[in-house]
Amino acid sequence: MEVRALRLTPGQDLRRALECAVYAEGCSAAFVLSGIGSLERAHLRRAGADDAEALHGDMEVLTLAGTIAANGSHLHATLADASGAVVGGHLAYGCLVRTTAEVLLGLLPRLSFRREPDLRTGFAELVVRQEGDPAGLT
């Protein structure tokens, strides 16, 4: 595993910036080790919902976790608003950094992550492969 530390700046889209950072490394398998910061706008899809909900105002990123694959991410975040109310869910595009986001990424250069349709769940789910292994790991 290789580790990269990132500091994102105001106005950057959190999810898109993380994906771009991983792809710029030529990596197709990564995960978030740690992530904190602040957002001015967020889009979270809550459990069982079809669409992401837009949230506005100053928010602290309390936790950030998930995987970044060659063809998509699966990221979860926990956010707190100015009153301390906490909400969490799937991190969608459109989460704009307010002052900073500090993220540690773990890059897995010998693995490949892809999201492929899973008939059991109805979603594109993570498939893990060793580089050069077409069958995938279970």
TrEMBL record:
One Pfam family, short name: PCC
Annotated protein name in UniProt: DNA-binding protein
An annotated Gene Ontology molecular function: DNA binding
Record's keyword annotation contains DNA-binding: yes
Record keywords, A-Z: DNA-binding
Domain (PPC) ranges: 1-129
Highest taxon of the lineage: Bacteria
Organism whose genome encodes this protein: Zoogloea dura
SUPFAM superfamilies noted in UniProt: AF0104/ALDC/Ptd012-like
